[in-house]
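Morning run. Coffee first, then this:
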Amino acid sequence: MTVAENVTEAAAPQSGVDYVFDPTWDQETERLRTNEALWDAGTIERLERLGVGEGWSALEIGAGSGSVAHWLGERVGATGRVMAVDLETERLGWIERPNVEVARLDLRTDELPAESFDLVHSRMVVQHLEDRPAAVASMVKALRPGGWLFLEDTDSLPLFRSAVSEDFLQDVRAAGYGLMRRSGHEPRGGHFDLQMALESGLEDVTAEGRTVMVRGGSDQARHYMLWLEFMRPRITAEGLLDDARIDEALREMADPAHRWLSQVLISTFGRKPR
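And here it is:
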């Protein structure tokens, strides 16, 4: 079992999908797309490392706007299949591939097909669930013997670390993530993914962490700006920060002179015994 950290400069997503941002899209769609801009390159690199290829059957849980599901559809080819599931599937309609099935599914209440997939992948899903062990057990059950579970969740402690100052945006992080934790978000979710994988009977369990160096004003920075705007009403209602401080923080995030660390995204891998 190894845990490593890799810090990279944020770049455009390498998913093979050329997105055109439509100004009529809602803010949540933009948040999902900017999240893909942060993390897709590393996720796809790790899927390639696992050997995902022609003929695989893959399940993408929490498919979001569909970039990873689309990549998987290309990767597994005509002889493979991809099932892309989410609570909301409207943003997945653009994926027009006969080997990609889109389905509405709630991991908390719906059963996954047993022993059906060579790969089950989820990113930033498990850490938001109340019964995380049950969710992971359901994913493991959905794997075929020899299939891979690939979980990605975060550790938010390093977020906004920067050369700008020791406390750069730390009041924003503490306010926003404090409220998220009260709503069920686990800020050390990636660590618990590893623990659950080790306890689930999987083999060859490993984990590694990666961060992105975000530049102010980029698509990646926009992701955090959208997050702060979304959290603004709750933060101000609780008296944690006022609107003036939030406006100042948004200007800091938009400034190309500023660079900061993302969360650590911890990738956990494990294979179901044959």
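Residues 1-25 have pLDDT under 50 and may be disordered. Good start to the day.
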